[in-house]
Amino acid sequence: MSNDHVEEAVKRRLSVFRQNDVATTIQAVEELAVLGKAAVSILIEALSDQNAKVREGVAKALGKIRDPRAAPALERALRNEQLAPENEEGDDTDARVEAALALGAIGASSAFEPLTAMLAEALETDWTLSWYIIDALGMLGDTRAIPLLVDALEHSDFDVQKSAMYALVSFGQVAVEPLIKLLRDRRDEVVLQAVQALGKLGAAQAVPELTWLQSHCEDRFLKDFIKSYVAESIRKIDEHRTE
Predict the structure, then answer these.
(1) What CATH number is given to the structural domain containing 225?
(2) Which DSSP string do the residues of the chain spell out, in sequence order?
(3) 43 contacts 84 by C-beta, under 8 angstroms
(4) Residue 140 lies in a domain
(5) Is 48 a domain residue?
(6) Whole-angstrom distance, CA of residue 133 vs CA of residue 224
(7) pTM of the full predicted structure?
(8) What are the tens digits of pLDDT across the range 23-58?
(9) Which of 57, 69, 161, 170 would bridge with 17, disulfide CB 3.0–4.6 Å?
């Protein structure tokens, strides 16, 4: 397909995003992904569109194409620096979410610092965005994120905790030791997330500490939940051993 045909094909899909129809948007994203690398330079430009729904759809497509050339523009879209506030059309949260997820999917090492910087801000101001930045860090797979994710397990928002737990699980065995240490935390919610993560990881080395926890939680407010979660995690670890 010639450059002119690619440009025309991209523009048609961008017009679909402006209509804000879920079904046609999904189809347009898939069609842009099929165009692949030939569409990337045009899509990068479209990340500066004043319409937030356009930026959202474009970021989704770039996340599927996974071309590292898009990373700097996606970082700007994540920070929402590409537009003056008076030029904004629509809520930008979904566009920023998709920019974060696209950065995680692309896996560019340069995305670690922008993601973690925005996470620190989002944990204070926009918990919804923070959930997906945490997901992106799990996708990115940079082990420097592990201490930040452990800290996020202690956040007051339950969904932040859950996102952090699943992200830590995605790192595999390298996350086990930090999670084991959390089993001695005095905050029940933190302990419950750590217990679940260790079960999902099939972490055999955690069994002694899990067993200890099961027999030393009588003074905890959520002791029945903790006992139940520990038993379930030990069961999962045993299943993992026999696979």
Answers:
(1) 1.25.10.10
(2) --HHHHHHHHHHHHHHHHHT-HHHHHHHHHHHHHHGGGGHHHHHHHTT-SBHHHHHHHHHHHHHH--GGGHHHHHHHHHT-SS-GGG-BS--HHHHHHHHHHHHHHT-GGGHHHHHHHHHHHHHH-HHHHHHHHHHHHHHT-GGGHHHHHHHTTSS-HHHHHHHHHHHHHTGGGGHHHHHHHTT-S-HHHHHHHHHHHHHHT-GGGHHHHHHHHHS-TTSTTHHHHHHHHHHHHHHHHHHHH-
(3) no
(4) no
(5) no
(6) 32
(7) 0.88
(8) 999 999 999 999 999 999 999 999 999 999 999 999
(9) 57
Is the residue at 241 inside a domain?
yes
Q: What is the pLDDT of residues 208-237, one digit of tens each?
A: 999 999 999 889 999 999 999 999 999 999
Please state the domain count of the chain: 1
Q: Nearest CA to 57 among 21, 25, 83?
A: 25
The token pair at 139 is: 């996708």
234 vs 243: CA distance, rounded Å: 15
The whole domain housing 230 covers 171-243
Q: How far apart are CA 242 and CA 125, in angstroms?
A: 45
In a domain? residue 124: no
Q: List, as one string, the DSSP characters of 34-74.
A: HHGGGGHHHHHHHTT-SBHHHHHHHHHHHHHH--GGGHHHH
Q: Which two tokens stand for residue 71?
A: 């990373």
Residue 213, C-beta contacts closer than 8 angstroms, at least 6 positions apart: 183, 191, 195, 226, 230
